[in-house]
């Protein structure tokens, strides 16, 4: 279970740079930590802190206006690179619950939805406008049920797969849903596959 | 019947159910686990009181966090790891594989190595299967005609318990490779040239299939390098249809089918090809005869140029994202606009990783190193992708050639591709690297990475700066 996502409002931290990869979001050396909780302090670590651990004042998340922002507006291809889910757990640890970009790394996008974070993909031109709105500290508001993002007096519709929406709205755990709804279909698939591709079951049978 | 692509065939063969909203419940045949991305998945299994649905469809190994040196003369690493967090992460995997009865390629065993090297080597990776791993370079296994993609920790737990994942079908992209390449242009150069051409998100949302005579002429190691790098163009899936090269590679491997099952499997695998006239959403054609060795200069893999080129001058670029990115990358990399690539001095060379840590890669490096010396002050390491690769290289005497040239000969692991073990750069250090990512800090905070082929990295180590292998070899 993750926390259900219904509506959200607040400021958006602007990150106009493109290709912010998951190594930037969560540097590899912190991957030795095996906990999921408490990773917020490592989010964007090498952008937020200098080599001595002191805050870099210019960095967006170190500015008083944005350090508690629940939204991020990012440049294209946000979350590209490594599949590390720690990138999502760390962003969640900052209190961010919605990320808006013209495109995402696909694995990162998928990881967001499994952790109660809503990734919204909008056209590059729209994101450029939202970037300005974020920089000028306008309030962002999202209503997942209505699939609507409101900034100032403008509303933007966004797409999300119905099953993903339902899971986010309810905070459902995907594994439980699959085991509950599709156990019979999975059994039937295995029976069919074992007949057509028996070599894929040789090790199960041997053990 | 409509002509279908290999990707669609693999997808359709694994569809358990079509879900409302256009997603598919996809059956997963194989999952590879490593110490860094799996702990939280096992925690979820324990918390929910679940067991693995089919433990034998999994294989676990330690690769990311392990040191590639041992203080012991016999090379045993277990019990010698100084980094307490790394040692604890490895111990946690050992507990998990024991408690959940997962087959495990143990740290000092003959099958240890990088997930994407040992899967194929052990015959765990097979054509026509779906394969996942908590690692984005799972694209590698697509070289066998397997639908293989990287996933997060939550999804790993779902596969453990349900052997399925909910997935959205990708669009398809065909990359046709024609022509005969220069003998010193490798699969890595082709991959980098493709990424430079289409961009770091140029294949996002697409499953890439490589076709054409230049792919058919490639070894399995080269096909793996090619597929491995497709995530750097934003694609989760790279594919090559299996053929006799694939079957010859797999035959007799420990987990490959045996006897009558082998014959039955090969007969089925021969059908794993895109149909004549199948439609792709995008088609790209590349004549590899026109390519020269490639080197990345920036902080995204698409910031790559032919080795004989000069660095871009942002002042000559139009105002826009490309210009801003070039300015930022040049600043991070400590480079001057317009500078020749071959004038860039290095401090380190790294030959290894899931991209270029196979026996063919080590042979290519050794061929350059033979009878030469690493330049003074350069730290150059060769890290085999697996214990089996290391043993094979030693049987060929490649370790001697490399050590005599001044390279360090290491134990198998991810090493300097991912800065979470002992092998990393310090701020400002610069590495000629056969790995896959030149991201900021990827090889260590403040470290600077230039991606290239193993032969090019070996040449850079010897020259002390980025070198054009075509002149170097003459």
UniProtKB/TrEMBL annotation, chain A:
Record-level GO cellular component terms: 3-isopropylmalate dehydratase complex
Catalytic activity: (2R,3S)-3-isopropylmalate = (2S)-2-isopropylmalate
Biological process per Gene Ontology, one example term: L-leucine biosynthetic process
Domain Aconitase A/isopropylmalate dehydratase small subunit swivel: 3-124
GO molecular function, one term: 3-isopropylmalate dehydratase activity
Pathway recorded for this protein: Amino-acid biosynthesis; L-leucine biosynthesis; L-leucine from 3-methyl-2-oxobutanoate: step 2/4
Class of this enzyme: lyase
SUPFAM superfamilies (alphabetical): LeuD/IlvD-like
Stored InterPro entries: 3-IsopropMal_deHydase_ssu (IPR004431), Aconitase/3IPM_dehydase_swvl (IPR015928), AconitaseA/IPMdHydase_ssu_swvl (IPR000573), IPMI_Swivel (IPR033940), LeuD (IPR050075)
Enzyme Commission number: 4.2.1.33
CDD domains: IPMI_Swivel
Pfam families in the cross-refs: Aconitase_C
UniProtKB keywords: Amino-acid biosynthesis, Branched-chain amino acid biosynthesis, Leucine biosynthesis, Lyase
Function, as annotated: Catalyzes the isomerization between 2-isopropylmalate and 3-isopropylmalate, via the formation of 2-isopropylmaleate.
Quaternary data: Heterodimer of LeuC and LeuD.
Protein family: Belongs to the LeuD family. LeuD type 1 subfamily.
NCBIfam families reported for this sequence: leuD, PRK01641.1
Official protein name in the record: 3-isopropylmalate dehydratase
Origin organism lineage: Bacteria, Pseudomonadati, Pseudomonadota, Alphaproteobacteria, Sphingomonadales
TrEMBL record, chain B:
Organism expressing this protein natively: Novosphingobium sediminicola
Protein name: 3-isopropylmalate dehydratase large subunit
Co-factor requirement: [4Fe-4S] cluster
EC category: lyase
Catalytic activity: (2R,3S)-3-isopropylmalate = (2S)-2-isopropylmalate
Gene coding for it: leuC
Keyword annotations from UniProtKB, A to Z: 4Fe-4S, Amino-acid biosynthesis, Branched-chain amino acid biosynthesis, Iron, Iron-sulfur, Leucine biosynthesis, Lyase, Metal-binding
SUPFAM superfamilies in the record: Aconitase iron-sulfur domain
Domain Aconitase/3-isopropylmalate dehydratase large subunit alpha/beta/alpha: 8-464
The protein's annotated pathway: Amino-acid biosynthesis; L-leucine biosynthesis; L-leucine from 3-methyl-2-oxobutanoate: step 2/4
Entry-linked HAMAP family: LeuC_type1
Keyword Flavoprotein: no
GO terms of biological process kind: L-leucine biosynthetic process
Pfam families documented for this protein: Aconitase
Subunit annotation: Heterodimer of LeuC and LeuD.
Family that this chain belongs to: Belongs to the aconitase/IPM isomerase family. LeuC type 1 subfamily.
